[in-house]
Amino acid sequence: MRGNIAKRHVILSGCSGGGKSTLLAELKRRGYETVEEPGRRIVAQEMHGQGRALPWVDLELFASRAIEMASFDRARVEDANGWVFFDRGLVDAAVALEHAAGVPVAKTLTGLDRFHHQVFLTPPWPEIYRSDGERQLNLVEGIAEYHRLFDAFEGLRYDPVILPKVDVEARADYLLERLS
């Protein structure tokens, strides 16, 4: 992948239930290229299949599938013009694989192009958190995941930007201002 293209690929990460998907939908509404979270797509597929790669059944298999899907997603938007926003993706999947199987994040990502240096993280936000059939992580587990992700992004020398707890339009404005 060409380096300046990679610098236009922006990760939205953070706490489960923190508003990433809502923010992604707002960015898409504004005309930006977006890539939906691999994990949600895998869970939807597995709920209609054998269910072996569900994160609460086999986190290692789930994370491996998420890495494959996120790699394909990234290649698919390689030639996109302008900003491309990823709801989770490669780094999040690598962090999950490290948590499940001890495979170091840096090893999983070796040889892969970096994303934009700023990573936008949704903080834990108990007031909007909801579990559902596809998100069975409770808030305490979500907060632990958030801290693993934050530490991993810092360790990989990204610049984590904590998104404010404001309505989605203001959150999108904040993110876009930080990128300009």
Automatic annotation (TrEMBL):
Pfam families: AAA_28. Residues 10-171 form the NadR/Ttd14 AAA domain. SUPFAM superfamilies: P-loop containing nucleoside triphosphate hydrolases (SSF52540). Coiled coil: none annotated. This is AAA family ATPase. It comes from Pseudooceanicola spongiae. The lineage of its organism: Bacteria, Pseudomonadati, Pseudomonadota, Alphaproteobacteria, Rhodobacterales.
